[in-house]
Specification:
Residues about 1-40, about 280-290, about 425-450, about 605-620, about 625-640, about 675-680 and about 775-800 have low confidence and may be disordered. Helix 1 packs parallel to helix 7 (about 575-590), helix 6 runs parallel beside helix 7 (about 575-590) and helix 8 (about 615-625) crosses helix 10 (about 685-695). Helices cover about 15% and strands about 30% of the residues. It is of the alpha+beta class. The strands form twelve sheets. An eight-stranded antiparallel β-barrel has the order 1-2-3-4-5-6-7-8. Strands 42, 43, 44, 46, 47, 48 and 50 form a seven-stranded antiparallel sheet that branches. Strand 39 (about 650), helix 9 and strand 40 form a beta-alpha-beta unit. The longest helix has 18 residues, at about 5-20. It is built from 13 helices and 50 strands.
């Protein structure tokens, strides 16, 4: 049974997504008909729409959407114009109707093809939307006008109020106008003057209701300079409805008889003039047919929308989102976010090359129905996409970029955050530092006179130069019981003591920091806060979900990782555990880039240590900064951190000897070395280095403890230097193919052939055999809790002189000698000549490479009693 908080997240999803979708107008679906068109047909989709047309009849379909059932309407062919130069051969008009609504479609077609663009106008929602259809079609212009398809019972509801710019035409207002008489003629063909066409029909006593304004920009493919159009709904003396199109550059226009499905040309006597119009028309709703905006694949495309409407709290009161239609005919809904004043932004990173169109949706009038087009033109030089877990056809214990290139994380804990009290935090206007309102996000170094940001820039620049590319940490809320929130040069994240009082200045400053990280090749973490029961007692769950949805909308288009929670103090309840799952569900819903999701858990295991060995380096290395100090006589215990919604496992401190348990899980494993309070000096630098290498050799990625960004020498610590050496070695390997292979260490006690077969069988069995089943309900497991349990089998006890091997048999081997010594390495599959190199993990120096013969067990002895790394390659 789902908890109440599950309902909360669904409500929130409704606010963000369904709430945005709710303002997406019900789309009339269409298919076109032309009795005079020979061998013309269309079968194409632009979800949720579909056109099915056989050249003489057809249907326009709006598929079932949310609570709205499928809608099917017959479609009528109206007219063909010459298409815009360089874009399409034909502009084809279609009309779809039912008894109380209609849609006009302007389709840009060629003789045949698989895709086309379309402008869809819908009444009574008064929405003009750009669509990209894909499928199969053929079209040939008809030799004569098609016969009318009457709908005598058409009865339209009253039109919505006009929301476009002010205009001048006769004595019309934004509300109503009148035309005593209009002569209707056949639409012009081949450039013939309108007045040469015979009058087919005259209508009189037209009462006109303006609907909307359209701007056709200069890059329209027909004529230079562009123009503006006024679209209106009119009724004649017989109460028959007509759709009127008047122009700013000519008195001639169009009239569509909605009841009879016929189109006419008309001379309206005067041009329409719009307030503030230029040769290309006023700002507003451009109808440029050729996209002028070029966006690189994986790059942020930011759309800025503004509203003049005033609300008490725009963060709470206004929802806005954009529906993007890609070249694959699929649509993506992306929520927007408030950025201060009347400004709302939507950020989107396109993944597919080609033309994208978009439409904004909001319950706020001047944020709704905005449209645009851009073209995704492929990656910028050197861009590989976003970092994610390696796909399943490779080893999912590692990471890769979107383009498939492996990514080797060199992790660094984020500088300790500055916190302020939520209840006493200063208002944004009182926060220290300059107020910088961003107009864009430039990943290049930003010159700023805010000392904290300059310090952050310097820290990241030096870290990137040293090879660190992952910044771990970054939760915005501190411990909930203390009511702490993060602050920067923009002030605290929230003002007024409430999570519902977002401070845009804080997030604008955070924008710059994350953009700067990405510009330096660094992938930062973003998270909610500390996970404990206090998080959901101190804060309203809906306020937490709303805040996190805001963060997702703001930072999804960056290269980031969602590390949702840091571990809290003590056990957590089942309700809180379920709430953590709901945050993950929300993240999946709002994040179209699918960045990796994880949460930090305490690795509470500790190795068994004999009383006589309590102070030995090995025991300290294994138990390290975990919940149990070295010297504990308790049996080995471990708390697994695997949760179905996590893409990788992240644990903090603890017993390195427990890592084989996590190896069963087909996900990357990250170890954060952060000593617990009171144990900050428990680990010597040499022990830290040993723990780092043992973690890496057991298949985990390791992060050193916190550093102080205010200390100019923080990045020169010996621990970070050793971490850099470790990353440098693995960059010279195909690390994404290496796996722990302890069975390859030892000596031959049988024939080489028999031992080879046995070792292979043992290795295969070890990799494929799952751990014994555990009854989670009976044990009441809590991945975020420090309470250990004994259900899993004991982990293997390290050799007295620990040695570890990572191998891709027959190709590459990395062996770590923690305290020198000798071993026999199984090189049976590495036949022929192999290269051997010794690496000093303390200095980062390599020995001269030597060649030996493989194909047998080979003895190696470390240069001395310190730790060493042996690299063997047959690549």
């Amino acid at each position: 049974m789902r908890s109440n908080r599950k309902a909360s997240i669904l409500i929130l999803a409704g606010i963000l997504l369904a709430g945005v979708v709710a303002v997406i107008p019900a789309r009339a679906a269409q298919s076109s008909k032309s009795a005079a068109v020979i061998d013309s047909r269309i079968t194409a989709d632009s979800p949720p729409y579909r056109i099915e047309w056989n050249g003489t009849s057809g249907t326009f379909v709006r598929k079932a959407f949310g609570q709205d059932p499928e809608l099917r309407q017959p479609i009528s062919f109206l007219h063909t114009d010459a298409g815009p130069t360089g874009f399409a051969k034909y502009l084809v008009w279609f009309l779809a109707r039912d008894k109380q609504s209609f849609s006009l479609l302007w389709c840009y077609l060629n003789d045949s093809g698989g895709a086309f663009d379309c402008w869809l106008y819908q009444y009574p929602s008064n929405q003009l939307t750009s669509l990209h259809f894909t499928g199969d079609y053929r079209f040939a212009a008809p030799a004569e006008s098609p016969p009318a398809t009457a709908m005598p019972d058409l009865k339209l509801p009253d039109p919505p109020p006009y929301s476009g710019p002010a205009f001048t035409y006769r004595n019309w207002t934004k509300v109503v106008g009148a035309l005593p008489k209009v002569d209707l003629r056949s639409p012009r063909r081949n450039g013939a003057p309108l007045d040469t066409s015979p009058v087919l029909k005259s209508v009189s006593q037209l009462i006109v209701r303006p609907l909307h304004e359209v701007e056709v920009g200069s890059a329209n493919g027909w004529r230079e300079g562009g123009w503006n159009e006024l679209h209106a709904l009119a009724y004649d003396a017989a109460q028959d409805p007509y759709y009127l199109i008047l122009y700013s550059n000519t008195p001639n226009g169009y009239v569509v008889d909605l009841r009879q499905a016929r189109i006419y040309a008309a001379n309206f006597g005067d041009k329409v003039t719009f307030e503030g119009a230029t040769s290309s028309g006023p700002l507003g709703n451009p109808l440029d047919l050729t996209p002028e905006t070029k966006v690189h694949r994986y790059d942020r495309h930011e759309i800025v929308l503004s509203t003049a409407e005033k609300t008490a709290n725009p963060y709470l009161d206004v929802q806005v989102g954009i529906e993007f239609h890609g070249p694959d005919a699929k649509s993506i809904l992306v929520p927007g976010f408030w950025d201060g004043g009347g400004t709302f932004r939507v950020r989107f990173a396109p993944m597919l090359n080609g033309v994208w169109t978009w439409t904004s949706h909001s319950q706020t009038g001047d944020l709704d129905g905005r449209t645009g087009t851009f073209e995704c033109i492929g990656e910028a030089p050197g861009v590989k996409g976003f970092v994610n877990v390696q796909p399943v056809h490779r080893d999912t214990h590692h990471f890769s970029y979107s383009d498939g290139e492996p990514f080797l994380p060199a992790l660094l804990r984020e500088p300790l955050p500055a916190y302020t009290s939520l209840s006493t935090g200063s208002k944004a206007s009182d926060a220290p530092g300059p107020r910088v309102q961003l107009t864009g996000l430039d990943a290049a170094p930003v010159q700023d006179d805010t000392s904290s940001f300059i310090a952050f820039q310097r820290f990241i620049a030096v870290a990137a130069q040293k090879g660190f590319n992952r910044l771990v940490g970054g939760t915005i809320l501190g411990p909930a019981a203390a009511g702490l929130v993060r602050a920067n040069d923009g002030g605290p994240a929230f003002i007024g003591g409430s999570l519902d009082q977002i401070n845009p200045l804080f997030f604008q400053s955070m924008d710059r920091r994350i953009a700067y990280c990405n510009g330096r090749g660094v992938v930062p973490d973003i998270g909610v806060g500390t996970l404990d029961d206090a998080l959901f007692t101190q804060y309203e769950p809906m306020a937490l979900y709303r805040f996190w949805a805001y963060v997702l909308a703001r930072y999804d288009s960056f290269d980031v990782q969602w590390t949702l929670f840091e571990p809290g103090a003590g056990p957590i309840s089942q309700t809180t555990r379920k709430a953590a799952e709901q945050f993950a569900e929300l993240t999946r819903q709002v994040d179209p880039c699918h960045h990796p999701i994880t949460s930090v858990a305490l690795n509470a295991g500790a190795a068994p240590v004999a009383a006589s060995a309590e102070s030995t380096p090995g025991s300290q290395r294994r138990s390290g900064g975990g919940a149990m100090a070295a010297g504990s006589s308790a049996p080995r215990r471990v708390v697994p951190a695997d949760l179905p919604w996590q893409d990788l496992i992240t644990v903090e401190g603890g017993d390195i000897g427990t890592l084989p348990y996590y190896g069963w899980i087909q996900k990357p494993l990250v170890i954060l070395e952060r000593p617990l309070v009171g144990q900050e000096t428990a680990l010597s630098p040499d022990v830290t280095r040993h723990r780092m290498w043992e973690a890496r050799m057991r298949g985990a990625y390791w992060s050193p403890a916190n550093v102080n960004s205010a200390d100019p020498n923080a990045l020169n610590s010996v621990e970070l230097k050793w971490a850099g050496h470790c990353a440098d070695l693995f960059r010279h390997t195909r690390y994404y193919r290496l796996a722990p292979r302890p069975e390859m260490l030892g000596g031959p006690s049988e024939s080489s052939a028999d031992r080879k077969r046995r070792k292979k069988a043992e290795a295969a069995e070890a990799r494929l055999k799952p751990p014994p089943p555990v009854d989670d309900a009976a044990l009441d497991l809590d991945p975020f809790d420090t309470d250990p349990f004994d259900a899993l089998p004991p982990a293997p006890v390290p050799k007295p002189t620990p040695m570890f091997v990572l191998a891709d048999p027959a190709r590459e081997y990395v062996v770590y000698f923690e305290e020198g010594g000798s071993l026999l390495l199984d090189l049976l599959e590495a036949t022929g000549k192999v290269d051997t190199t010794w690496f000093n993990p303390r200095t980062g120096e390599y020995s001269t490479t030597k060649q030996i013969m493989g194909g047998a067990y080979t003895s190696f002895t470390a240069p001395d009693a310190n730790d060493w790394v042996l690299y063997v390659s047959r690549l």
